[in-house]
Amino acid sequence: MNNSQNGSRAYLFSIVLVAVLGGLLFGYDTAVISGAEKGLQAFFLGAKDFVYTDTIHGITSSSALLGCIIGSALSGFFASYFGRKRSLAIAGVFFFLSALGSYCPEFMLFEHGTPSASLLVAFNIYRILGGIGVGLASAICPMYIAEVAPSDMRGTLVSWNQFAIIFGQLVVYFVNFMILGEHTQPVIEKISETIYQVSNASDQWTITVGWRYMFGSEAFVAGIFTILVCLVPESPRYLALTGRDEKALDVLSRINGYEKARVILSQIKSTTEVKSEKLFSFGVMVIFVGVMLSVFQQAVGINAVLYYAPRIFESMGMSDPMMNTVYMGIVNITFTLVAVFTVEKLGRKPLLIWGSIGMAAGAMGVAISNLVDGVNPIIPVVSIMVYSASFMFSWGPICWVLIAEIFPNTIRSAAVAIAVAFQWIFNFIVSSTFVPMYNMSLGDMGDRFGHMFAYALYGVICIVAAWFVYTLVPETKGKTLEDMTNLWRNRK
User: Fold this and answer.
1) 332-347 burial, b if ≥16 CB within 10 A, otherwise e?
2) FRET label pair with 478: which of 35, 204, 214, 388, CA 20 to 30 Å apart?
3) Using one digit for the tens of pLDDT, what is the confidence trace for 414-456?
4) Can you tell me the distance from the alpha carbon of 182 to that of 184, in angstroms, rounded to the nearest whole number?
5) How far apart are CA 211 and CA 307, in angstroms?
6) Are 279 and 408 within 8 A, CB to CB?
7) On the CB side of 76, how many CA atoms lie within 13 Å of its CA?
8) Alpha carbon distance 245, 269 (integer Å)
9) Measured between alpha carbons, how far is 135 from 234 in angstroms, rounded to an integer?
10) CA distances from 474 to 289, 358, 397, 419, 482 (A)
């Protein structure tokens, strides 16, 4: 038993640091496609046994999200029966296998470098496998952090998970940029409404090798995470839920000090005596709010921007779209830190509301730019940056904070699984529909109609999201996880 009176912040930060590596992998895996998708498209356009259309490419680029839906839906089962720690280790294994499989989907089954329908299926299976890892990590990492963190630091520490997600995206933007080096992205030519071909002037290295290195680079990070997560303790709240009170008290003591740990354990036990409470024991509203937080986080359209950033900047007339993607990553990191350092001071609701308004302004700026001929490209680029930055100090981190803390202890695993599953369902819907919607043509406007329509739609959804937060989402700043039980019982 650790008898320290004050606990160890260094110990707390060390285990949180390992947990947020899961968030970094989450960001890395979901954003790696941004640099690889054009090379991947050019590769499969060379297939002889099927036609690789815009729709197929949209689904392929988003296929990992199908795994995210599966992983997040299963996260409640994994978290409850294997524990938070072992579930994160399992997620790390999925990340690792997916990275290697996506690097070489032909492994032992197909001729290397020959695109085919069967190879496309194999590639998507590997991406889905990685998505399962993302789905598990996306639900369990913030849950684990929330369950080990003191109440006065919980919002900040869970926000660091979002910082890690965005940092993972920035890292992979740099990695993709470095892998591309002196090479160039392939030139894709549209020859009909749904058919494309690769220009003969395209850089063949990018088509045959470049995208493989981008996907394979994730294996290094995944291996490190899987090893380190085996060294952290299990969540004390999970230990208490499974009757291992001595171990729970030991972990709580090392974080909070012995006397405070005894009080916290007593509070935990008072809300976990009934381990079999049904999902709707606290009413429908708590599940509805959690689900809609997830839905709005994706329906505002942010991942369409993150996944297809180079393509979007290229369509805006920027000469170096990959470098602009790196700049956007730096902006995203900076504004995520705004949330990290203000979430416990300003609260969850104000950040969500102001972020929604900022996103709406940025999205509408892009939409309006596409209504006017001859607009300087810097205007839609700045609008995109405003849109992205506003998400990063609001819906990006704060949604995860709320999902991790808003549910009562006895239903947290199942409720988080449902909420996060809805997040990935809507992530897939947004991401797989973005390219066809973005490329829609109408009359004299041509493709600019699709550009305008997509961002106008996202802007409207941002306004609705602000209204939802203002009217239905409770403020949880300063409340313990055990306080959530009384909050929702009183709202029934």
Assistant:
1) beebbbbbbebbbebb
2) 388
3) 888 888 888 888 887 887 777 777 777 676 666 667 778 888 8
4) 7
5) 14
6) no
7) 17
8) 9
9) 20
10) 9, 21, 16, 16, 15
